[in-house]
From TrEMBL:
GO MF annotation, one: gamma-butyrobetaine dioxygenase activity
Organism, as annotated: Eleutherodactylus coqui (Puerto Rican coqui)
Matches recorded under InterPro entries: AlphaKG_dependent_hydroxylases, GBBH-like, GBBH-like_N, GBBH-like_N_sf, TauD-like_sf, TauD/TfdA-like
Alphabetically ordered keywords of this record: Carnitine biosynthesis, Dioxygenase, Iron, Metal-binding, Oxidoreductase
Protein name: gamma-butyrobetaine dioxygenase
Function (record text): Catalyzes the formation of L-carnitine from gamma-butyrobetaine.
């Protein structure tokens, strides 16, 4: 068995969090796959819940708290964990109750006795908890598996971070945009994992060195899994068009927005590949919307409450991949059940004139929205950059608002970006799969 220090080093190579020292990943096509970034991670003070030591989880003894219907596991490091009877029975790992090949439960809730007792509990020589239930069914639980699923507040919070990578690094106009090699992302699992971790935490990553041709985003999308097909197709061409069916397909300025709030479930991640850049104008601008939301919540709680509680209609109608007539209702600032920031839904071009709000509340809504967008547009919050052919900007469409300065348009196409979408479910799936693969290969 490896020493504790060696195990900590191994896990540090494949942690989710991006190192805080620098957001810019050095481009070195020959060496980028030879080593991983060392990712820092917040650790709990209690040794019981330090997940870097899970491979060493050792049980001292097991006790039954029958009055509370808990099994209490005492760990060698001095901590203890409580597990309800019903949860243990529900999560029996035997072949009769659980299909290991699919990592899926076979035991139906209809056959679960939610008031079950237990006959006895033993600690085996293999450091496992063995339980015999009243019907003589037997369950066995590995120490590491149990420790991962401890019900303490600290352990639950750490597991949620492990599963969903919820930590965010906010930024303003001083952003040093993380930059990586497109070629390395396609060919190196370590770099791909690094890219997706950074995308999740910072919200934006620039890839350099992509071939300057249409269709490359399909290749990039397949590196993750599959792309989001919308009414604009798998990919779409951002360029000046006659009779444009989208304001992005003009040469005018685009104000800060998120894409596709007219869909009830907007795409989570967006790719934009620069194929041709205008000589004059066309600079991109991005804002960390979550940073601005936090400022608004502190500066004007009433305005924040209005934007998190008022449902706004968005619409999008036209013909592209096929004809479409979309209608949705969104809160401009969407919160999760705990009150945390989940998603920003805002595109002024597709915000409907229909406003399903009592007339006496209309003025307050507009005032709140105006204050929110004024904060977005403050120079201290906005980062500008001008894409070059061969660059692909990848960003969190739920968090980052993006826009564009106007540019000169002529007889020929003067600026051309190709875009595509993915859902966060797909991106997070690849991230977890790569993490597991890298851990196993190490």
């Amino acid at each position: 068995m490896w020493a504790a220090a060696a195990k900590r080093l191994l896990r540090s190579k494949v942690q989710f969090s991006v190192a805080n020292t620098s957001l810019t990943v050095q481009r070195n096509r020959r060496s980028s796959c030879s080593s991983l970034l060392y990712f820092s991670r917040w650790q709990h003070s209690s040794p019981v819940y330090d997940q870097t030591c899970l491979t060493e989880a050792m049980i001292r003894n097991v006790k039954v708290l029958d009055a509370q219907r808990f099994v209490c596991v005492h760990w060698e490091d001095g901590g203890q964990s409580l597990y309800p009877y019903v949860w243990l029975r529900d999560n029996c790992q035997c072949p009769e109750c659980f299909l290991q090949s699919a990592k899926a439960r076979k035991l139906s809730i209809e056959n679960l006795d939610v008031n079950t007792s237990l006959r006895n509990v033993n600690l085996t020589d293999a450091n496992k908890v063995s339980i015999t239930w009243p019907d003589d069914h037997q369950s066995e639980f590995d120490a590491k598996w149990l420790k991962q699923r401890c019900f303490s507040k600290e352990s639950r919070a750490e597991m949620q971070e492990e599963l969903f990578l919820q930590e965010r690094q906010y930024w303003k106009s001083d952003l040093k945009i993380p930059t990586m090699s497109y070629e390395d992302v396609l060919n190196c699992d370590q770099t791909t994992f690094q890219w997706l971790c950074t995308l999740r935490k910072v919200g934006i990553v620039l890839l350099e060195g992509a071939p300057v041709k249409r269709g490359e985003l399909i290749t990039l999308g397949k590196r993750i899994g599959y792309m989001r097909h919308t009414f604009y197709g798998y990919t779409w061409q951002v360029q000046d068009k006659i009779d444009a069916n989208n304001v992005a397909y003009t040469s005018g300025k685009l104000s800060l927005h998120t894409d596709y709030p007219a869909l009830q479930y907007p795409p989570g991640v967006q790719f934009l590949h620069c194929l041709k850049q205008a000589e004059t104008g066309g600079e991109s601008e991005v804002v960390d919307g979550f940073h601005v939301c936090n400022r608004l919540r502190k500066q004007n709680p009433e305005a924040f409450n209005i934007l998190t509680s008022t449902q706004i209609d968005f619409t999008d109608t036209g013909v592209d991949y096929c004809d479409f007539s979309l209608q949705s209702k969104q809160r401009i600032i969407e919160l999760d059940p705990t009150g945390g920031l989940l998603r920003i839904n805002f595109n002024n071009a597709t915000r409907d004139s229909v406003l399903n709000t009592p007339v006496e509340k209309v003025q307050a809504f507009y005032s709140a929205l105006k204050e929110f967008m004024d904060l977005m547009n403050q120079p201290e919050n906005t980062f500008y950059f001008k894409m070059k052919p061969g660059q692909v900007v990848t960003f969190d469409n739920w968090r980052i608002l993006h826009g564009r300065k106007s540019y000169e348009s002529g007889a020929d196409i003067s600026r051309h970006l190709e875009g595509s979408y993915l859902d966060w479910d797909v991106v997070m799936s690849r991230l977890r799969a790569l993490k597991s693969k890298l851990q196993n290969s190490s």
